[in-house]
Design brief:
The structure is a homodimer.
Chain A (H helix, E strand, L loop, with lengths): L3 H12 L9 H12 L5 H11 L6 H24 L4 E2 L2 E2 L1 H5 L1 H20 L6 H26 L6 H26 L4 H28 L2 H4 L5 H4 L5 H9 L2 H12 L5 H11 L2 H21 L9 H12 L3
Antiparallel strand pairs in A: 1-2
């Protein structure tokens, strides 16, 4: 068995081979550019972890891992277009560097490339994996649409936000584990428990993400915190703050969101702290983590096989960037 | 056995069922809108024809046909964005009606929906069909990229144009037939011959398309001809005209392409006729049709089974719009 860290290194090495042919270079060079700007490669490693929980890693798990990473990168290229983002991981986004039309096609072809890796899966699980992959891919698109819809809505409830985040972020983490588990020969019930583990971890991950964007240490976080606040993004923090704020605090928040002032981030953070949003976020994260671990406990394999998944969860939750 | 016309009607009836769930309606209503604006549904019918050439139509062929039509519509939604087109089949395009971000996601989710139909194929041919579908999908994207690249190039050769058209248009027609044939239990050699038939038909189809855009009868064509000429689009006609024109004609063409004049279409058409581009296009179409029919002859099934494919070819080639 390999540790989470070892599997990360193995995947990163594997992923270095070129994923596209050389021509037409006007299409594939931008694709390679984006794949090479890096990333944490969490999802593909989760495919390997899902397999390893039940048996030695089968070569199919690497095909699956490549597929999931290509799919994730497709969503990033298209999301960056929708968000009109100019930077991703500190590098110029594809649509800024190569134009909208090429970025559109690069995303499309990345998704097709993902399906090419799926097709390489030799085991008799191809149909089942394709079904989960399709279902997940559709849900990720639905989540992105809901995220855009929420921008135009005045009020978003916590439940609505969790539903959106589940689709946009969690299901791909959950499905990565589950599809890996299928390759590993897991039973249906074990797959289901692992999927739920991944889903809850995903929500906890997003709570952490929203928390870091507001309260992260600039030096460690790698960028000035407060990006979400500046954009009035409906995050776990803002949604909760608006739910618990006094009439006066709510009025102040509304006013702050209606204008661009140099001390906007500072003032919003100060209200967040008055509302104890930071403590609430921490406890919400812990709640989802505990639920995740309950599902992990329900998986019928020896405890020692679960160790790399616990390492993964700790890595995700203790990250500071 | 069914005729081409009967299969068209059968597919159109089948395709009427909703292809998307109801929510989120902000994503799926635009998707349904686009699918409902119609189209000739040639590609899905080719899936059925490919199956029927070898055996009675298997339900899997309908899954495949749905997949191919969804995939084709995905390319149209994204191509319309890239071309900044405001109309498609006389109706407002998705990106104009619902905005770029939604159109981007609608295209994405149509492609995923195509793969959902592929996944439903029960036969043991799933892996092979998925491989052809992926390869074709990638080639269509490559063709679209080359088409955009050509817009920026001063000179495009006939061979380059045929290569681009093969990728952008022909391979999907060819693969639709081939994948249908696989479901019909065709041998490898018969599949290969049928694929080549589809590829040549596809090129002849594009010659016809370019011809109609220049020389079509406005009343029958449904729109004023000359759209390609107005946009200086590198078509079969323009590429050939530039190859055979005298120095004086070439100078005139270059000048006409550099400005917007009210008689541009008329003047370019007059040079096209002087260069006998219309006759050349007709003979080029016949050349590809003959090559296509040679491949059809090489397919080892009884002649009467080939009749619906001949009906298809005649329908495509004798169309006036």
């Amino acid at each position: 068995m390999f540790s989470f860290q070892e599997l990360s290194e193995k995947f990163n090495q594997e992923f270095e081979h070129p994923h596209f042919p050389e021509t037409p270079s006007t299409l594939y060079e931008p694709g390679n550019y984006f794949l090479n700007i890096g990333g944490k490669r969490i999802r593909p490693v989760m495919c390997l972890l899902g397999n390893e929980l039940f048996s030695d890693i089968h070569p199919d798990a690497y095909q699956l891992a490549n597929a999931v990473e290509l799919f994730h990168n497709f969503t990033l290229v298209h999301d960056d277009m929708m968000d009109a983002a100019s930077l991703r991981r500190g590098k110029t986004t594809v649509h800024i560097k190569y134009g909208d039309n090429t970025a559109l096609l690069v995303g499309d072809v990345m998704m097709i490339r993902a399906y090419e890796y799926i097709q390489k899966i030799k085991s008799n699980h191809l149909s089942k994996i394709l079904q989960i992959f399709n279902q997940t891919a559709k849900e990720v698109c639905e989540g992105q649409q809901l995220d855009m819809d929420f921008e135009k809505m005045e009020k978003v409830s916590l439940d609505q936000y969790i539903h959106m985040i589940t689709l946009k972020t969690s299901v791909l983490l959950a499905a990565s584990l589950e599809m890996g588990a299928i390759i590993g020969g897991a039973s249906e019930n074990n797959c289901k428990q692992l999927y739920e583990f991944g889903k809850k971890i995903g929500i906890a991950f997003q709570v952490q993400d929203d928390y870091l964007d507001a309260f992260g240490d600039a030096a460690i976080f790698g960028k000035e915190p407060g990006g979400d606040i500046k954009q009035n993004k409906k995050t776990f923090l803002l949604i909760h703050a608006l739910e618990v704020a006094t009439a006066q605090q709510k009025k102040e928040l509304d006013e702050l969101m209606q204008k661009e002032s140099p001390d906007k981030v500072e003032k919003v953070l100060s209200i967040f702290k008055e509302c104890k949003v930071d403590e609430w976020a921490e406890s919400l994260k812990v709640k989802y983590m505990n639920e995740a671990f309950e599902h992990l406990e329900n998986i019928a394999v020896m405890d020692k096989r679960k160790k790399p998944l616990i390492e993964l969860a700790n890595y995700l939750m203790n990250r500071t960037k």
